[in-house]
Amino acid sequence: MKVIIMAGGYATRLWPITKSKAKPLLPVGTKRIVDHVYEKVLKFNSPILLSTNKRFEEDFRKWAEGKDVEVVVEDTMREEEKLGAVKALAQVVEGIDDDFLVVAGDNIFSFELNPIVELFRKKKSPVTALYDVGDYELAKRYGVAELEGEIVRRFYEKPEKPASTLVGIAIYTFPREIADLLVEYVGGNERSDNLGDFLSYLCQKMDVYGCIFDNGNWYDVGNPDSYIEAFKFYTDSFVHESVEVAKAAKIIEPVVIERDVVIKGRSIVGPYAYIGEGCEIDSSDVSESVVFSKTVLKRVRLWRSIIDDDCEIRNIELSGSIIGGHAKIQRG
Fold it and tell me: Where is the Nucleotidyl transferase domain (predicted)?
């Protein structure tokens, strides 16, 4: 079995941060989102391919250094050109003569993937991972499965009236013959943006099984709020030895503070804060937030926000905000 990590999207719901950063490479503690996926699939000792786009190719090649990963690149540079997940997957599997496990690169979950692989080996048919979000309103955001025993009878993409609260979490196992069906599907001008539509198509042709994961946590890092929640749950603590902290400043773990950060005045950093390399935090409070490199915060209260590289922010309180790179914001 081969493993395919899908990391070719442009994550428009996290713009402007993800205009310059691939979502799977965003930090979650000392790791990146895709590190969590990689560590789960590495345990199968299978060949791993990562599918991305031309814009983020070099970033993923750098990430893959020293890892047993082959980077496969689709020839797109922006959202308007993207192939969609199904076409991108079809491109990857066209030359594969093996069964394959597919995992979205922006998934973050605590459970192991052995159950879906074991069910696949038992049934020799497609299997999709399902997770009970426990709320019908929340289920409307996802692909929803209608089950009969273990078999998915229908799969509804973002339904107005969900049949259940069991949602697809972009983890699939497919037998090798599905590669030909994928190529046939995208060649027939069917919708090719998400794998949920392809799954609905498969349900009409063969038995598709559902594997319910109910023994852990799953986060779809699709928007700033879910990213912060995942960050809070999975973050560990690390402060680089080069960090300078004033006597009056306070660090409340867990935090991740990268090299060459200077924390001045009566600043409070944490809990649940990521401070990127070369930042200056002066008389500011930062919690439940991610601040990328070389940003200056002076007399700022920052909560549940994401600040991109090279920003300068002074004399303001920000909550639930996303600030793009090189911004200068000052009040008073």
Answer: 2-236
- Per-range mean pLDDT, top range of 25-39, 249-263, 317-331: 249-263
- Reading the block at residue 95, the tokens are 């030359």
pTM recorded for the entire structure = 0.88
Distance CA 74, CA 55 (A): 9
Residue ranges in 94-221 assigned as alpha helix (H): 114-123, 136-139, 178-187, 195-203
As a whole number of angstroms, the distance between CA 25 and CA 37 comes to 11
Among 168, 219, 45, which residue's Cα sits nearest to residue 117?
Answer: 45
Q: How confident is the model at residue 185 (pLDDT cuts 50, 70, 90)?
A: confident
- What does R_g of the chain's alpha carbons equal in angstroms? 21
Rounded Cα–Cα distance for residues 190 and 12 (Å): 23
CA distance linking residue 86 with residue 88, whole number of Å: 5
Rounded CA gap, 155 and 144, in Å? Answer: 6
Domains in the chain (CATH in brackets) are 2-233 (3.90.550.10), 237-330 (2.160.10.20)
Q: Which two tokens stand for residue 316?
A: 């303001």
Take residue 281 and report the two structure tokens written for it. 């935090």
Give the whole-number percent of the chain exceeding pLDDT 70.
95
Give counts: helices (H), strands (E), the chain.
Answer: 9, 28
Question: Nearest 5 degrees, angle CA 235-CA 237-CA 242?
Answer: 135
317-323 — which CB contacts under 8 Å span 24+ positions? 320/224, 320/225, 322/14, 322/15, 322/16, 322/17, 322/224
Residue 78 pLDDT > 80: no
CA dist 45 and 233 (Å) reads: 28
| Mean pLDDT for the stretch of residues 64-74 | 88
